[in-house]
């Protein structure tokens, strides 16, 4: 029989798959001897079984009974006992944390009888009633699916009737009345009374937690975070401890370092006399841990001790939930905490300095995506701004957009192409879609651990929360600060790094991390190039830049993949080089056929004799040569892969319909249309139903005599020019869309002739390898043959994805990818992250067969996947030599290539050990 239930004394932090994150860490803390209320965890396996069968496995009921009895015996109380009840919380806890996405029910075990027992043992009638009414409402909402507003309205009506505004002013008798109203709501809405039997409450709550795995918002969250749908959640059943037993009780959330900035020191929110979710919900504004230390020094001291112990144990930032019950500290949860990108780098570097982790480990604590976030622009410090309010800097970044007051409007306006900032009093899980659509999130209530802050940080969205000066009225869709009124659609700007909120647009400047990446550490720290304003950096920013430098330098030392850039112009190449590119992996030559040069292409297409055609090609040579000279100069000493023309020629000709209209109109007017007639005929001749699979790439090169030879000549002459000027060009010529080795042989013959000619004419030695793209399945499957004629391979994974799947890359993303993501055919678009088991298989085959035929064959990637972190790990594993990505992604890719190398070392260790 599978073991579905584990007591907290049985598991440990490495069992997240089975016990979920929360359960595994509760067990770990229990093992460490920290004060965790006793309890047990129902495994994710039980949930998966339930979701498949649609029913609770019978063995689970038995195992729950045994665990519950053991718990009761340990505590010496029974669940829901009328005299002295044991009460439990029932909380979800999946392998990956999904803040606010799933369900929790507190105070399970309370009923009409045990509420009196609770009154007796607590000596507090008000507290007991309050706990019971909370159970009915929470149970009603999450287990019985009753609209939460019904409970909230009943509470509001009662408060109005009593003439009070604060919940805490309701007396025990008031709460009794409220309990009756709540029970009536349950009866009316479900046709059944509120379940009185404690075990029934427990069973239903557990089922509700299982079911919450599949709510719409949980699915949406998982899709975004790329969490697989089939993991299921664990359920934690934990003895209740109470933070709402008066002034010497309370509940809080804390971090062992600041998760927003990464600064060292205690950090958290505390609410005296409160229960569970009050803190995270951001309903009341919270105290800091320093305030807590003043009010309750003994509990704070215990807490600080536990925080240090946990950080030493986990060797990372820990995020902790705790409750103080009448002066006694209880740990309710811990986990390695989510953090902003900047905090991730700073904390990793601090932990290295503190000798708690190694540099290799530091590299595993940051991601390329986080580095990419640090490269986003920031508000210009020198710009004029109208400061409206200041809140908490919850998630950094600079967001400007139209103020919107609800999730639906955010989604709508975003879909229409508008930038929006979502403004709410506080957010709840239903706001998730709006938060995704918005550039930034602003709330007037709640601390840095409120839902808005946690979720925004998780998704890298800019967020300012708790801006109390702003009075948000969601009904009228306005926000007021003093006499300033912000209406829906008014532009506001929020700075998630400082917590500032501005009225109107604010210009943005480059991030200091980009300054560092381009100009180096010393220049940036001195503020010479960096900072955008010539001033030195503030200490926090300087610390961040140093942390990025430490970790990226280590990634460079660790990585085996070289990183090149896709760049077509000297400017892009120079920038890529500053950002650390080790060459150009793809120079697309098509832009060299645009602008003024279109006429030459027209002439080429319309040529009715070899002389006219050659003249057109001849005229293109000096223009192309000029482009190449600049490019080779910018990348002097580093390889530059020049790809011969790829797109179909009609892309350089006028639009068919427009030209037809032009001809018709001209004819109507009696004008001479001879040239346009000829052009239109050519356009018609070249028209293709499916140009992506038509006359492009090497097919064009073989069909238009002299076209590729002209490009090779231009590149060779440019190389000769650079050599003569004392440079060191490292040119490589690449042939696109090859499917058969014969195509490559034919082009190679032409190219070799041209190269020999230019070398002889110019009296220089030209060492220019000729390679091919592997971007068709046939090329991948015949790579061994193709390698005979290729000096190198470069995977064009854009076309390889298109052709392996039969997806027209220009059409499918807009047409149906959203639906495919919804129904789970993909978790991510295969054009974004390489489809490792399909397209990746072709990459593996081609690499193995190419290298078998030609040992040491140099192989790279130049499709978009070269800049995608997950794909970079794949390319590392396959053993490629380099990846090429857009210039701005180069630092991200350097970091990920380093991370891939470290991860490989881990695997190697694992393989060397016992099996
Ligand atoms: C590719 O197909 O991956 C590639 C890099 O070429 P292009 O995107 O220019 O077709
Ligand atoms: Mg291609």
UniProtKB/TrEMBL annotation:
It catalyses: pyruvate + phosphate + ATP = phosphoenolpyruvate + AMP + diphosphate + H(+). Its EC number is 2.7.9.1. PROSITE patterns: PEP_ENZYMES_PHOS_SITE (PS00370). One of its GO terms (molecular function) is pyruvate, phosphate dikinase activity. Its cofactor is Mg(2+). Residues 548-898 form the PEP-utilising enzyme C-terminal domain. Residues 53-285, 299-343 form the Pyruvate phosphate dikinase AMP/ATP-binding domain. Keywords: ATP-binding, Kinase, Magnesium, Metal-binding, Nucleotide-binding, Pyruvate, Transferase. Belongs to the PEP-utilizing enzyme family. This is Pyruvate, phosphate dikinase. It comes from Pseudonocardia charpentierae.
């Amino acid at each position: 029989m599978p073991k579905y239930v584990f007591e907290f004394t049985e598991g440990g932090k490495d069992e997240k798959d089975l016990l979920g994150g929360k359960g595994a860490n509760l067990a770990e803390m229990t093992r460490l001897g920290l004060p965790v209320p006793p309890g047990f965890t129902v495994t994710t396996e039980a949930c998966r079984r339930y979701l498949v069968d649609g029913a609770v496995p019978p063995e689970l009921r038995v195992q729950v009974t045994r665990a519950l009895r053991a718990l009761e015996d340990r505590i010496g109380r029974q669940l829901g006992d009328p005299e002295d009840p044991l009460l439990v919380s029932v909380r979800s806890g999946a392998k990956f944390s999904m803040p606010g996405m799933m369900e929790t029910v507190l105070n399970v075990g309370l009923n009409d009888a045990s509420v009196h027992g609770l009154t007796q043992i607590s000596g507090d009638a008000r507290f007991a009633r309050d706990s019971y009414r909370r159970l009915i409402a929470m149970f009603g909402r999450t287990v019985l699916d009753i609209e939460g507003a019904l409970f909230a309205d009943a509470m509001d009506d009662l408060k109005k009737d009593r003439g009070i505004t604060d919940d805490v002013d309701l007396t025990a008798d008031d709460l009794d009345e409220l309990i009756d109203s709540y029970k009536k709501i349950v009866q009316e809405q479900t046709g059944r009374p509120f379940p009185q039997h404690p075990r029934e409450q427990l069973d239903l709550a557990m089922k509700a937690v299982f079911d919450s795995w599949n709510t719409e918002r949980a699915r949406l969250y998982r899709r975004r975070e790329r969490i697989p749908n089939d993991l299921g959640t664990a359920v934690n059943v934990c003895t209740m401890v109470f933070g709402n037993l008066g002034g010497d009780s309370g509940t809080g959330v804390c971090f062992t370092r600041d998760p927003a900035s990464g600064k060292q020191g205690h950090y958290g929110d505390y609410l005296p006399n409160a229960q569970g979710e009050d803190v995270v919900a951001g309903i009341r504004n919270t105290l800091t841990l320093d305030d807590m230390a003043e009010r309750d020094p003994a509990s704070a001291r215990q807490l600080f001790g536990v925080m240090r112990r946990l950080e030493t144990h986990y060797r990372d930032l820990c995020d902790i939930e705790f409750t103080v019950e009448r002066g006694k500290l209880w740990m309710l949860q811990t986990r390695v905490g989510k953090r902003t990108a900047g905090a991730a780098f700073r904390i990793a570097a601090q932990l290295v300095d503190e000798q708690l982790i190694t540099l290799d480990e530091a590299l595993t604590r940051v991601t390329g995506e986080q580095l990419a976030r640090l490269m986003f622009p920031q508000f210009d410090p020198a710009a004029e701004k109208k400061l409206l309010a200041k809140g908490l800097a919850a998630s950094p970044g600079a967001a400007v957009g139209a103020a919107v007051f609800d999730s639906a409007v955010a989604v709508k306006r975003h879909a229409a192409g508008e930038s929006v900032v979502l403004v709410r009093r506080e957010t709840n899980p239903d706001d998730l879609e709006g938060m995704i659509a918005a550039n930034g999130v602003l709330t007037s209530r709640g601390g840095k651990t409120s839902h808005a802050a946690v979720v925004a940080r998780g998704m890298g969205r800019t967020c300012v929360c708790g801006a109390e000066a702003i009075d948000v009225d969601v009904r009228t869709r306005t926000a007021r600060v003093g006499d300033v009124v912000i209406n829906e659609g008014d532009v506001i700007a929020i700075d998630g790094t400082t917590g500032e909120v501005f009225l109107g647009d604010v210009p943005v400047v480059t991030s200091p991390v980009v300054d560092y990446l381009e100009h180096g550490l010393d220049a940036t720290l001195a503020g010479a190039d960096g900072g955008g304003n010539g001033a030195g950096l503030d200490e926090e920013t300087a610390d961040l830049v140093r942390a990025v430098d430490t970790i990226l330098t280590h990634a460079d030392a660790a990585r085996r993949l070289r990183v090149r850039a896709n760049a077509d112009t000297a400017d892009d190449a120079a920038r890529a080089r500053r950002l650390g590119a080790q060459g150009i992996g793809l120079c697309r030559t098509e832009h060299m056929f645009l602008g003024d040069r279109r006429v030459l292409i027209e002439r080429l297409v319309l040529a009715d004799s070899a002389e006219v055609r050659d003249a057109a090609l001849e005229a293109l040579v000096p223009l192309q040569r000029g482009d190449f000279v600049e490019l080779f100069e910018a990348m002097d000493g580093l390889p530059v892969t020049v790809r011969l023309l790829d797109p179909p020629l009609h892309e350089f000709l006028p639009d068919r319909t427009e030209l037809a209209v032009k001809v018709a109109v001209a004819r109507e007017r009696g004008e001479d249309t001879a040239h346009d007639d000829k052009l239109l005929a050519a356009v018609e001749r070249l028209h293709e139903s499916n140009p992506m699979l038509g006359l492009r790439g090497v097919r064009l090169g073989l069909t238009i005599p002299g076209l590729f030879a002209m490009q090779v000549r231009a590149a060779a002459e440019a190389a000769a020019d650079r050599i003569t000027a004392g440079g060191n060009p490292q040119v490589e010529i690449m042939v696109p869309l090859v499917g058969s080795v014969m195509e490559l042989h034919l082009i190679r013959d032409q190219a070799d002739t041209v190269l020999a000619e230019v070398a002889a004419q110019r009296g220089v030695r030209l060492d220019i390898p000729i390679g091919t793209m592997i971007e068709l399945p046939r090329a991948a499957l015949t790579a061994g043959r193709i390698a005979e004629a290729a000096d190198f391979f470069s995977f064009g994974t854009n076309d390889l994805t298109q052709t392996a799947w039969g997806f027209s890359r220009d059409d499918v993303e807009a047409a149906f990818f959203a639906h495919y993501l919804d129904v789970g055919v993909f978790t991510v678009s295969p054009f974004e992250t390489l489809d490792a088991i399909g397209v990746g298989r072709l990459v593996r085959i081609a690499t193995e067969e190419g290298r078998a035929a030609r040992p040491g064959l140099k192989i790279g990637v130049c499709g978009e996947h070269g800049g995608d972190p997950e794909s970079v790990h794949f390319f590392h594993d396959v053993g490629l030599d380099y990846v090429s990505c857009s210039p701005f992604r180069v630092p991200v890719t350097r970091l990920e290539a380093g991370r891939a190398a470290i991860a490989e070392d881990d695997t190697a260790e694992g393989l060397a050990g016992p099996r």
